[in-house]
Amino acid sequence: MPKFMDYHPTLKLPPDAIQMLTEATKAGKVDQFGVKQLELYHNNEQGGAWCILEGPNEAAIHSHHNAVGVPVEGQVKEVKGVL
After folding, report:
1. For residue 15, how many other CB atoms are within 10 A of its CB?
2. Which among 25, 56, 63, 74 has the fewest CB atoms less than 10 Å away?
3. How deeply is 38 buried, as exposed, middle or buried, from its count of CB atoms within 10 A (0-12, 13-18, 19+)?
4. Could you state, in order of their start, the residue ranges of all structural domains in the chain?
5. How far apart are CA 57 and CA 49, in angstroms?
6. Which residues contact 42 (CB under 8 A, 6 or more apart)?
7. Which pLDDT score, from 0 to 100, does residue 82 have?
8. So what's the pLDDT on residue 11?
C-alpha cells in the first residue's frame, strides 16, 4: 500500500484529539477510504502537523482529511521509507 505525507502549517491539536489519533494509530484503524494513519508529528507551540498515512491513492488521503475536518492545506506527496 502506498504511503503519503502531508503538512498542515497552521494546525494546533487539542490534547483529546492527539489522544484519539494515538489510540487509532496504535490500533491500526483503517477508515472508510482505506486510509490508515502511520505517524503524526506536531508542534502545538508554533503550529503545524505532519501526517504520514497509508492509503490507496492521493484522493483517498484528501477524503480522509476532509472527513475529520482537517483539509490538506498544501500538497500530498507519496513517499518511500528507507527502513
Report:
1. 8
2. 74
3. middle
4. 3-79
5. 20
6. 11, 13, 18, 48, 49, 50
7. 80
8. 85
Hey, what's the cell of 2? 502506498
Give the DSSP per-residue string, 3-49: EEEEEETT----HHHHHHHHHHHHHT-B-TTS-EEEEEEE-TTT--E
Mind listing the pLDDT tens digit for each residue in 1-51? 999 999 988 888 888 988 988 999 999 999 999 999 999 998 888 888 899
Q: Which CATH superfamily is domain 3-79 in?
A: ORF SCO4226, nickel-binding ferredoxin-like monomer (3.30.70.3090)
Provide the pLDDT for residue 15.
86
Which distant-in-sequence residues (6+ apart) come within 8 Å of 64 by Cβ? 31, 33, 35, 53, 55
The β-bridge partners of 78 are 4
What does the block give as the cell for 47? 503550529
